[in-house]
Amino acid sequence: MSRGVRHYPGFGWMTVLCLVILYAPLIVVTVYSFNGSTSITTWGGFSLRWYVDVFTGPEAPRFKAAAWNSLTIALIAATVATAIATAAAVAMHRAGGFRGRSLTFALINLPLMVPEIVVAVATLIFFTMVGITTGYMTILIAHITFCIPFAYLPIAARLQGIDEGYEQAARDLYAGRGQAFFLVLLPLMLPGVISGYLLAFIISLDDFIITNFVKGAGMETLPTAIFGSVKQGIKPNIMAISTLMLAVSAVFVTLSYLVNRVGRKSP
Amino acid sequence: MAAVQDAVDIRNVTKRYGSFTALDGVSLGIADNEFFTLLGPSGCGKTTLLRMIAGFEEITQGEIRLFGDPIAGRDPNHRPVNTVFQHYALFPHMTVRDNVAFGLKMKGMDAASRRARAERMLEMVHLSAFADRMPAQLSGGQQQRVALARALAPEPRVLLLDEPLSALDLKLRQAMRVELKQLQEETGITFIFVTHDQEEALTMSDRIAVMSAGQVQQIGTAREIYEAPVNRFVADFIGETNLIEVEVTRVDGDRAEVVLPGGHRLTCPSASRTGGRHALSIRPERMSVVAEAGADMLAVVERVVYLGTDLQLMVRLEGGAEFHVRLQNSARIAVPEPGARIGLRIEDGAARLLAD
Fold first, then answer.
1. Is the whole model's pTM more than 0.80, yes or no?
2. Cα of B208 to nearest chain A Cα, Å
């Protein structure tokens, strides 16, 4: 009889250690975002003042502009990346064998393994060489690019679980290629596609390194704006804005999980 | 040239996957309104042939014609055939009704007509009450019926069935056999049925093509392939048989004289035109136990197996070959004891000399 994981020596303290290292900083930031004092280390009672400050304080216009950029970039990048990733997944798993299939697979997934700083430098050099002025557009292009592999993974995983018989049945019942895709395959892939979209969205919203390289002067996304603000010292409003981002991420991750769970019920 | 055109005309079709030959020069004609079965063990190429007709496999060599038209290069959606898939492949995100109406929608039928037709098809398969369910809410047998209704709804000229009963339990399978045959007769559509189950093939088919190793071994009615198998494979695959090596002493047209173990001579129908050593197939249920004096062969009983409706005698012939005899379980027969010496009489037509 299995004794269960709890009975391994050291299970208790190892678990506590991991949880503390992973989550203590997040808890501290979240709790202190409700701090009434101007100090970031001493507790001055519960207050929402720093949340009010985020939306109305001296840095509010800067944060608002940055948040708007982040949001629109994440929406567009996730949409385009998901469309490309879906097409790539179908090509990889439904087009049969083709020359360079393994190479294509490596090319799609390589960005996950290349150090981000290298991609950031390379992307900046590329934009400079081609002569594109850095700004909103360059951030968007870069985000679309690095979001593709993240969108691809859940989509491809889902697609691999779908029997080819469904599309064949559709084709057999007089559906053209496009109809078989849009009426049968895509609806069956949908949980994977949504999951990929949410993941791409979060990755884009969250990105700092590449964005910081290719954003150009005067253009900020939320992460670069926060970083810029922190360089002049950490103020409690940063904790409030971080907590807000944390909440948005949590909502998306939960959605992604739920979508996947619903999807798994149907074959 | 026959006056009636074949529904499906398969001419010398070969399919290779790399160095593996799945189909090797298969030719056969399937008549309109026929219930035609491709029967063979897994890997014999029967499903490949079916998928070629449906348009899911390319033809390496040869030609397939549907009602006279060559279909190579036509996409599956441009062929007047529909398929009932082995695992049904019902669209899980659509209701039963939408599944059945899918082909009609693709053909451009208006919403009201296709709804009416879907209802009619569901009525035909006794599932009217389930139209609004999702496929996952149905039992295997019900899903199978939906798959049938879906494939028949667009009125294909040929219906392809890829082992559709294999996922059902025995009772349901037996009921579906009758239902399928009735459906075929009612609709008048040509059915091409793929199966590895010889009983299924025998009960439903107008004609059967027995396949093995990518080749058609024999084509004929159930009776023909059961009673007049051409070779060892067919004799052994269809039903139960005894195969014994015999010496052919004389060939006369389609009959031959052979020497049975023990020395008696027997004249029987023959698939062979040559002398020498050949296999003789003797069906175990076409034997009777007789006194040694009037027997064709002598044997010692080794074991008696009780099978309910039948008794199976496992005996050893003179010369050492194992042999099976099936007797109907009846109060009128005297069941021999193990160890007893018995005489065996081969009924007329029970034995057939094979080509190999």
1. yes
2. 24
